[in-house]
From TrEMBL:
Domain of life: Eukaryota
Protein name, UniProt field: NADAR domain-containing protein
Cross-referenced Gene3D superfamilies: YbiA-like (1.10.357.40)
Span list, region Disordered: 241-297
Species this chain originates from: Magallana gigas
GO molecular function, one term: zinc ion binding
């Protein structure tokens, strides 16, 4: 180290054992340092290789054979008969993509807390933006042509712990609203058998099965690498829809009005804050249909 206390230092280190990386932050000569190196994980999540599915390294530095994501053995893909967890699933409703009404990507008009959205994905990403205080992102998401664009905009939002703790409840609220406002969705989940497992067949390990359609259908449910959180929420809402059909739709409206008022207060508060810190801001009104700010492609 030198006597100059800031700036970038380049260091040569011995190659790290396979699967290991240096911490992102450490203390060196009494100073807190940020450490960057090739093959280092991008965030603090557990790093998983998408080639061999072992943890601790990325695909870019993997020297192992390509493996099945379900059993982590080489020579086959998930859902092929060679996989020890192969089994054709009977009581599942797999879905993905904008053509399927069960998917959040399905284009439909949704009114959530008084804001109109073009899909459930738009509604979810917009709420994320608002709750994380990113009004620019919120207005861009509202203006986004399709759900994929809305999702991409949403991925750039810097989230906070509060959002992570409440996002599943937000998703459930949106799916419930979809079950009231989108008749085709309502019919589809209401007519499914009670034992049906809804499952989003995407590589997303949080909301989906973590597998493609073939892999999902032909793998035992308890071996799906993803948590299928969205499918679980739809199942829960489907149960409510069946009950609601019996005792009719009444109780929701009041609660929604209260929530709507609460959400508006947050929007107003953020607007005031923003106006105060950025006196000549333009085109950042999350309620406006079109935004003056630069478009995303
Ligand atoms: Zn690997
Ligand atoms: Zn396998």
């Amino acid at each position: 180290m030198t006597s100059i206390l800031n700036g970038t230092r380049f260091m040569y280190i011995e190659p790290l054992p396979a699967g290991e990386s240096l911490p992102k932050f450490n203390t060196c000569a009494g100073l807190r340092c940020k450490i960057l190196h090739f093959g280092q994980p991008k965030n603090n999540h557990i790093l998983q290789c998408t080639n061999c599915w072992k943890t601790g390294h990325t695909k870019s530095i993997c020297k192992n054979d390509s493996c099945c994501k379900v059993c982590q053995k080489p020579g086959h893909l998930p859902g092929q008969k060679e996989c020890p967890h192969y089994e054709v699933q009977k009581h599942i409703a797999p879905f993905s993509g904008s053509q399927d009404v069960l998917s959040n990507f399905y284009p439909c008009e949704l009114d959530i807390y008084g804001v109109k959205h073009k899909s459930a994905e738009h509604a979810f990403q917009y709420t994320k933006a608002i709750r994380c205080g990113d009004l620019d992102a919120a207005s861009k998401i509202t203006a986004a042509e399709d759900a994929l664009s809305a999702m991409r905009l949403g991925k750039k939002i810097k989230t906070n712990e509060q959002w992570n703790a409440t996002k599943e409840a937000v998703m459930e609220e949106i799916i419930e609203n979809k079950s009231v406002q989108v008749k085709l969705f309502q019919e589809k989940i209401r007519s499914a058998k009670q034992s049906t497992t809804f499952v989003e067949t995407t590589y997303n390990d949080e909301w989906g099965s973590g597998l493609d359609r073939t892999g999902t259908i032909n793998t035992k449910q308890d071996k799906w690498p993803g948590k299928n959180t969205l499918g679980t929420i739809i199942k829960k809402v489907a149960k409510k829809v069946r009950k609601r059909k019996l005792s009719d739709n009444a109780p929701k409206a009041q609660k929604q009005n209260r929530e709507q008022a609460k959400q508006r207060n947050i929007v107003d508060m953020l607007k005031t804050l923003r106006a105060a810190s950025d006196s000549d801001a333009s085109g950042c009104n999350p309620d406006s249909e079109s935004s003056e700010s630069e478009g995303e492609t």
